[in-house]
Amino acid sequence: MGDRVKFIEHKGQKIIYLDFSNMHGENLVHLVHEFEQLIMRNKDNARLVSLTNFTGSHIYGDSLKEIKQVAKRVRPYLYRRAVIGITGAKMVLYKMVNFFAGGTPTKLFVSIEEAKDYLTEA
Predict the structure, then answer these.
(1) CB 90 within 8 A of CB 54
(2) Choices 3.90.550.10, 3.60.15.10, 3.30.750.24, 3.40.50.150: CATH for 5-120
(3) Tens-binned pLDDT, residue by residue, of the chain (122 aa)
(4) Distance (Å, whole) CA 4 – CA 52
(5) Less packed terminus of the chain by CB within 10 Å, N or C?
(6) Model-level pTM?
(7) From the CB of residue 3, how many other CB atoms can be counted at a distance below 10 Å?
(8) How far apart, in whole angstroms, are the C-alpha atoms of residue 35 and residue 103?
(9) Burial code of 80-99, b = ≥16 C-beta within 10 A, e = fewer?
(10) Are 94 and 83 in contact (CB under 8 A)?
(11) Residue 21: exposed, middle, or buried by beta-carbon count in 10 A (0-12, 13-18, 19+)?
């Protein structure tokens, strides 16, 4: 796994971090597959949580379609999701992806620290 898909630790708990920041197009597809593989390898963890950073990213076309499909496949294994970097028009994109991924509680945050606190609260 690269630096953009990895476990990070906060308050003694592991969080899967997916960093889409400043990326666009097909580069995102590779990352979303790494994300899916990491989740599938750890799917027996009942409290698996993820943090996705969309700051400065541009998602469209086939990459959007693939992200929605992966979100749907991994949703049964995620306890909580947090997202940062969604503002303005990106909110519509987020709502579409979240709709297809439904079932996993997801919250939007402005700061990464707030998101990590949410994911690690009891």
Answers:
(1) yes
(2) 3.30.750.24
(3) 579 999 999 999 999 999 999 998 777 888 999 999 999 999 998 889 999 998 988 877 888 888 889 988 998 999 999 999 987 776 776 777 667 666 676 888 989 999 999 999 96
(4) 10
(5) C
(6) 0.86
(7) 7
(8) 18
(9) bbbbbbbeeebeebbeebbe
(10) yes
(11) middle
- Asked if residues 46 and 78 have their Cβ atoms less than 8 Å apart, the reply is no
Residue among 35, 43, 34, 20 nearest 94 (CA): 20
Query: 69: how many CB neighbours lie within 10 A of its CB?
Result: 14
Other CB atoms within a 10 A radius of the CB of residue 41 amount to 9
**Domains of the chain, residue spans:** 5-120
Tokens of residue 95, six digits? 């709502």
> What number of residues does the chain have?
122
The first and second tokens of residue 12, run together, are: 């003694």
